[in-house]
Amino acid sequence: MTSIRTGRLVIRPFTLDDAAFILRQLNEPSFVRHIADKGVRDLDGARGYLRDGPMASYARHGFGLWCVELGGAGTPIGMCGLIRRDYLPDIDIGYAFLPEYGGSGYAYEAAAAVLGHARHVLGVRRVLAIVNEDNAPSIRLLGKLGFEANGTVAVPGTEREVRLFAVHLGEAAQAQLAPTGAAGA
């Protein structure tokens, strides 16, 4: 499994040691409002989420949500990665950051690196994104990354309909998304 390094960040696979961070991230009001209430209320639940979610995705698909850390300090600040959802025709990008790290460009930096990894390492040509209609910051970020609106999609098991975006990862259009460095993990 690969880790991605950018100018300020390390984007690496989650481990069970990240349970305390995951517990906090999944219970942030902004996460619950814009993504979902995952029902994780303690460290055992957080470890289960990691095992059954990101870590299972690594084993099944070779990708998943990764932990985003500040490069020098190793402080977890969010998550970003690729997700394979049964109800979408292509993989999608997902991200969430702790509120105190918003507005610093970390989400853009991490998402651009993940898209570069998708294109240059995994050979992916198209990535989707889903977002709630009222999540203006996420919609702006997707626009900066080159995503275009592509309709809506119903989320199975809920009564929610979310906006669907897509980006094509062609050679010329996505050259700036090449990862700045990768190291084995």
Automatic annotation (TrEMBL):
<dbReference type="Pfam" id="PF13302">
    <property type="entry name" value="Acetyltransf_3"/>
</dbReference>
<dbReference type="InterPro" id="IPR000182">
    <property type="entry name" value="GNAT_dom"/>
</dbReference>
<dbReference type="InterPro" id="IPR051531">
    <property type="entry name" value="N-acetyltransferase"/>
</dbReference>
<dbReference type="InterPro" id="IPR016181">
    <property type="entry name" value="Acyl_CoA_acyltransferase"/>
</dbReference>
<protein>
    <submittedName>
        <fullName>GNAT family N-acetyltransferase</fullName>
    </submittedName>
</protein>
<feature type="domain" description="N-acetyltransferase">
    <location>
        <begin position="9"/>
        <end position="174"/>
    </location>
</feature>
